[in-house]
## 1
Amino acid sequence: MINKLNKNSQRRNRHLRVRKKVFGTSKTPRLDVYRSTTNIYAQIIDDEKGVTLCSASTLSKELAETLKNKTKSEQAFAVGELVGKLAKKKGIKEVVFDRGGYLYTGRVLQLAEGARKAGLEF
């Protein structure tokens, strides 16, 4: 009988494998993505200091009113724009994208496009 690991466990393993190579510095922090079934979260992290520089999610107060009656992909795009704007305020122009073990499609892609539209480079 073949025992298959659950999807979240496989994603966690992919994420750990990628995190061996992706590292955020003070010059180029890491843009980390976490995607749940209902929400999406993005953080910009300086791994050298172990500090979150800024974060945004679909639960953010700034986005709460604007996200009503939007699809999850549209919400992810808005979260990407917000995290990009917050990063620009902190003087961050370039980041390293960490997709968190998720495929680069759907909501993860939309979040990345929103961050690029806001001016982040990766």
## 2
Amino acid sequence: MKTIQWFPGHMTKAMRMMEQHLSLVDGVIFVLDARCPAASFNAKLKKLAGNKPVLYVLNKGDLADERADFLLKLIRESGAAAVKINAVNAASRRDITGAIERLVAEKRQRALERGQTKIFRFMVAGVPNTGKSTLINLLAGSKRAETGDKAGVTRGKQWIRCDGFELLDTPGTMPPAFENQKLAVRLAYVGSINDDILDLDDIALALLGELQEKYPQRLFERYAIEGGTPLEMLEKVCAKRGFMLRGGEYDYERGERAVIDDLRKGRLGRVTFDCAEDVKGVGF
């Protein structure tokens, strides 16, 4: 498989902007994908936060299964503050606001004792397409930040006023290099890496292989797949969907895109790719 690396120039600019604005915030909210929280963890962003209080938000919880709850528990056991939500569901607003308030409870109390009503500020950061802007819109109660279903929608900083605090929306930022290609591939599955720089042949085959290992029943239910190599499974997807070329050859490209799209749209059910070893290995 081709090595995945993606750190375009605008991300360097974004990192510099975040460094410049860090002194203006009281804490940092890191948004992760609940299906792959270890893969969507950016150690460089954690280092950037320094001694600021940090909250990890495992977003897209509606697309993850119960394994994500176990990973959330491990993250909390490491000493980090963390919460799992679905930012497109209004019911998650209470969960995230409660977690934010707990993060600054001592600071707020000290301010109140001095007779001050402080507006706390938080930087919202993470890799692309984890739902940072959607989270901000949930907290703001309206569409204030630009959102999209692909990597790289937010390019500049945006301050958003919410009840009792302000949020700084920042562009999605990858680590300069992926040390763990297994985790990088999972980011490609969920759309955090620009598809234009990927070899979708490799990504789709890797996805089918991992789904066969962890969720074979989903493949059977969706595509009538009962084992086989990743290529054989892809051919079954093509046959099931009628993705054929002249001469009876399989239209592999349409099959690959269908599998990837089915995963991203939740048509393959709730899945979680990362495991305990992945979470423990990245260092929350």
## 3
Amino acid sequence: MKRFFGRREGDNIFFEESEAGHIAQVLRMHEGEQVIASLNDDNDYFCTLVEVGKRRCIAKIDKIQKCAALPKKEITLFISMPKRDYFETIVTKSVELGVSEIQPFESAFSVNHAFKSERVEQIVLSACKQCERSHLVPVKNICKFDEMLEMLKSFDMVIFANEHINNKDNNLDELIKKFEKKRKIAVIVGCEGGFSEIEAQKITTAGAVGISLGARILRCDTAAVATLTLVNLISKN
């Protein structure tokens, strides 16, 4: 069953603009067909289309149930801004892997210092529909490195993909123990050039737990996926 984001009025869900166009013109759906509506809350709304138009579609709510894809942990990805293509891939995969928020920041080797918010919003929308999430994941405005460090104070645990440490320093048993009862988790990943030694030291001093992703140097989008996958498996997110 296809999923679309809309707004609720009483027992009806309204799909507008690009979502209506997708229903009517791309998928060529008709009245009487069933869809799942997401309203940016914790629920899935199972509906039947009662009106289909190019600019507005209306569906009647048949059943409401909690979204099965809701993350169990509140995970924020802090990503040092890479090239545009890498950033867009990271946004897509991060949403699919259950992050609650994406916070880009500037560091010594950052490439981009801006992104097109409208395009990123469409990427998030598409990724949420793909992985059947009912919440749209916010991508925050780019912040400075020192601002990012300050934000880390509000997290229960901070994981840092640190290319400056050796793979043998990883202790997964200890890492698993540290995840117990941790609800709010930050994950920090660098851009193509990684972090300077000074930046890595500052992140560690701020309380981050550094992990190695192996003997090979990974591309930044691969590093983000690998780190988030590890965090998901350990935290059972």
## 4
Amino acid sequence: MTQDEKWYMQYERMMEFMETNHRRPSKHRVEEHDMLNWFKYTKKQMAKGECTPERKEKFERLLQVADKYRRKNQYQYKTELGTGNLFQTSDDE
């Protein structure tokens, strides 16, 4: 299995999880740590500009879905990934 195949498999797994459970993976549930770690790592790669345009486009869609399931008082992800700052609080809007 190539790295691209693994990345897309994790992407699909994360999207399916959020659509099924109507929430993002929790850091308090061990069985969800793999998805959460992949999500955080990929977010860092995007901020550095180290991803292909195809991955960037797909991940932006994932961020939109993740924002939909954001809990109160949590950070909201910016969908503009080239800015270097992927976070903004509700107060920044």
